[in-house]
Structure formats: structure tokens, C-alpha cells
Structures
1.
Amino acid sequence: MSVAFLSLGSNMGDRLSLIQQAVSMLGNDNNIQIAATSSFYETEPYGKKDQPWFVNAVIAIRTELSPIELLRACQSVEAKLGRDRKKEEHWGKRPIDIDILFYDDLIFSNEILTIPHKEVHKRAFALVPMLEIKSSYIHPVLKKDILELHEALEDPEDVFLYGTISGSNVI
């Protein structure tokens, strides 16, 4: 079984509830087991600053889905929670966003998916929750652990603890 790390974010509606619903929907998929969850963080928007702040979290999952199948599962959950990629602005508001950050130690890229996520090392909103779950995880391309990547951020967006999830948060 593979281990993948997913970043979840929302800056529309009941942000916290949307993330909780997404985690629940992913966990209800017979091919996905939630292995660890980070706390929730309120985060400054990345890229496009003139929009509501996000709530973000990272989860670790165990899955037998291929990376492409996992992407489809994530996009299905996004659609069920109201995301319409055709109508949204790049880096704009969204009810839910689920990104695959890492999938085992896989290095993979095609026209619809890049693993590891090509921007993860620049995003405090993904690295801070990853620190909780697996700070020692080594980025397979950059060969640095999550703590080193976080410490190397040049102009990180603001990230504030928003709330915690009960249960295991370390993998």
C-alpha cells in the first residue's frame, strides 16, 4: 500500500466544515485509509492576495489507488463539494481544493499531474501542517526534509493555528 500526503484548503462558505466533509468523503472511499491528520490552519492566500483567507490541513493516507486514480478521487470529492474548475480564477476563491503533495517517493509528471507537487516547497500553508505529520519526510527531488524546506522559505505567507482534529496526527 502506498502512502500519500494531501493538502486540503477552502476559502469559501463554511471553510472548516468543507475540509472536514472532504476528509470524511475521502475516508469513506474503500481504496483510501486516513492515516494521519494535521491541525487546521488559517492561512493567507498564496499568489492572489485580495480574497478571503483559507483554512488548510494536510492528511496522510494509505491507498492502493494509482496517482491518477487518486487525483480522480480527489477531484470527484471537490466536485461534490461545489468546486467548478471551469468557472474559477487561477489562485482564486474555491470551496475546496485537494492537492496531492507527495505519493511515496514517486517522481512523476504528465499533462494533468506532477508529483511531488511542483510548488510544495514554496508554500507555508502546505509545509506547516506537514511538519506535524512527518517533518522528516524527504522531498524526493530536492532531497531535503520538510523542516529544511520550511526553514528555507524566503517570504512565507502567514499561517495561524485554527483548530485541531482529534486522533492520530503523526505517521
Note: The chain has a mean pLDDT of 93.
2.
Amino acid sequence: MVPSMAKKQNGKSKADIVVSGKDLTKVYAMGDVEVHALRGLSVQIERGEVMAIMGPSGSGKSTLMNILGALDRPTSGEYYLDGESVAELADDQLADIRNRKVGFVFQKFMLLPRITALGNVELPMRYASGELAKQRKQRAAAALEAVGLGDRMDHRPNELSGGQQQRVAIARALVNEPAIVMADEPTGNLDTKSGDEIMELLLTLNKESGTTIIVVTHDPEIAEMTERTIHIRDGEVEKIT
């Protein structure tokens, strides 16, 4: 059972826009020098969309991902995530919205080595609510079943292949039923076969549950598997394909 989320719908009402950023800027102070990572960038992502963000090193791609994932806030501009204004939230508010609205999948898996696959998937729920331990385990087990690891729940990360570890990370990202899943180079540490399987899994989960997927990648073949690609250069949208 994949965690329930709204199916894709036709039309583009305000409720269908899960990510809306307008005139986003991000300026870092490096001593006396200001580095402009984002320069008035605007982006909208529909609920249930699968899209990629691409750009060379230094393009602002990672900065944009951090803002969209509520890991950081813009210097100026408006950002709404699933209808909530994010741009001016305090750190503890950012942490709360991040836990409720965003699931993360990283290149290096980010699994705790001493606990099982089931325990790793349970972690986001421990921070989200006062849910009973039995309910957490049931939801974590359902998420692992959804990614094809029902028979690996009691295995620790070092007992799993790279592809299996990434599946655990995807289950962990989905378990709180987030508005979006941010996948940062999700196939970067995998061989080609395992990487293709991970992308197919993300696409299948999107089709079955309507989960919005945002993939940050350097790989044009990965981007080709998504519905739309935003190309970033020098802190601005260069083109959309």
C-alpha cells in the first residue's frame, strides 16, 4: 500500500499548484563580497508533476533545491509550499513544515547504520506526531512493501545493496505523505541498472499515488524520464524543456 495522496487532476486551479516561487533571490555574504546565487527566479510546479532541475556547478541549482525543500529561505521573493508561505518562517517553523510537507532522497542514502530498514523508515514519524509505536511500525511496513522491500524490513543498511538502501530512503521519504519528494541525485551512487530501477520506482509511485517528484540531477538521461526540466544558469531559469 502506497501512502495515500491526491490523484492528478485536470486543470490548473490554485489548489493544483504545490510549489510556487516568485522573484526568488538568494545572496550570500563572503567577506566584503556578495554572491548572488539566485537572481529573481520564478517557478511553479503542479501537484502530481514529475520534474527535473538541471544546471552546471555554481548555477544556483542546489540553492533552489534547498529553498524548495524548506532547508533554507530566500533573501527576497515569495515562496508557497502546498499553500503555505515559507519565505519568512523562523528556523523551528521551517523544520516543522519540512517534516510535514517534504520527503528527501539523497545521493548518499543517509540511513542510520545501526538500526533496521523498518527503524529507518519510522524516524520521520517520531518527529511528526504522538503516533503510537504500533501505528508507526504499520505505516513504515506499508511504505517498505510499496518499494518492494517487504522481505528486508529487519535488515540493517550494511546487509542491503545500494539499490535496496535507496529504496529504504524512498520509503522513509514517503511515510509522512509529503506534498513533494525532493530527490537530490538519487541515482548518483548506483550502477546504471540500479539507477534505472530507482527512477522507474519513483515514476511508478507518482502514477499510483500522485506524489509530486522533484529530481535534481546532472544526468540528461535521468531528466529525460521526467515530464519537464527546468534548466538553471547563473541563478536564473535559462529554459524549460
Note: The beta strands are 17-30, 33-46, 50-54, 76-81, 84-85, 102-106, 180-184, 212-216, 228-233, 236-240.
3.
Amino acid sequence: MITRYRAWMDGEGLHDVDPAVIITDIRESKPEENIVTAGNGYRDGQRVLYRHREALSVTIRFMIREYDVARRKGILSRVLAWAHDGWLQINDRPEQRLRVVCEDMPAITSALKWTEELSVVFTAYAVPYWQETHAVSVSGSGQSGTVHLAPLGDMPCCLEANISNTGSGTLNILTLTAGNRSFVFSGLGLASGKTLTIRYAEDTGLLRMEIEGESVMNKRTAASADDLLLYPGSNTITFTADQQISGIFKARGLWR
């Protein structure tokens, strides 16, 4: 039986678990938006107060084309081991990935019927968007400068960066700006030859700012934004520092 469907969890293909595993369908639920509105006073209509985006689910349906019951159970056990929490990819969304938790899977006893269609369900909660598999990046150097970064996708995404101090002294003052938002550091203490890493954790999606594994989140001033947002298309990023720097600026595009 030939199928056009493919799915990978953390880089491992479901079709690679065993040749008897055939994916019959992959369905992606369209996440709904709850929109809260209020009246426009003396005017007609409503105004939007805020939007709340619901979780996104992906259901993978498959069959195990194996007559032997014991072997079918063994194959299903390996499928269940494959269906853990992690980064899911499907072939209908090339170069994209989704951070998911496994919400539902079949019982081992269901492997007794070789004609039965089985399914596993994955849901994205904390990061409910498809993300670009490989980040786009651009380099810049100097004590101040401007670079341009163009992530793909149809939603705003967040800037990440590796900033290395190439000057002779300690770097204490650094400002990174994208649009109308900035990260402003004071008393950073980045020694010559060392690197500041600004990234979002793979498992939680939370922002990390570190020098050699030590957090420097507290070195941001009150003028700092929570995130530096980039939009589909070209974005201008500026930087200024009190030492010469070499920076790699990167982002992963997001899709609904």
C-alpha cells in the first residue's frame, strides 16, 4: 500500500518505525479564535478588546499491515514510543515544525485487528504555530550598525542573536532595536572574546539571555521590551555598543 503521507517526530519518521506502518491520513485542526468585543458607545457596531487563540491539533491516522498478532503488537509498541512530546513535522508542510504534546494514542489491545485504522493526536499549546525548521540569519559587526532580516511565514516572530565582544575591553552597554522595540543592556559585563546568547528555549519557548550559560536577564533596563518582533518580509535591526561586536541575528518564521 502506497501513501503520500509522511510524519517525523524529532527527526525520526513514523514510516521508518516499520515498513508495515502505513499513514492513511493527517488532519490538522484549524484553531479557533475567541474574540472579546465591547460596544462602540454612541456609534453602531463593536470594537475588539482582545483575541484568544485556541490550541492546534494534528491527528495522524495509520494502519499496521501485518497479519501476525504478536508482531503487530510489537510494531504498535514502537509507534507509541515514537509518539512522544517534541517537534512534529509533516510532509504537507515542508521546512516547518510544530512543538506538540501527545494527547491521545491507541491501546495495545487494538493491535489485534489488522484491518483497523488507528490514530495518534498531537496538540500544540505553549507555541501553537508552525515554525520554520531552519532559522534565517544575517551577520553584522562594528560598534554600531544596521542589518536586514527577512523571515518567512505569515505571523510575527521573535529575534534571536549571538553577540560576541571583539573589542579590547569589557562590553557593558548594548542596545538592539527592531521596529519600535529594543533590548537595552547596562552593566552587561561581556568580556572580550565572550558571547552573549539571546535565544528561545526549544522545550518551553521561553526567552533566555546568557553568557557562558549564566543568565543576564537582569542586565536589561526598564526600557527593554519583552521580545523583539519581526514581521514577514524585510525587517531593519540596529545595534549600538560600547565595544566592537560581531553579531549573528536570526529568526524562525511562524505560520498559523
Note: The CA atoms of residues 87 and 99 lie 5 Å apart.
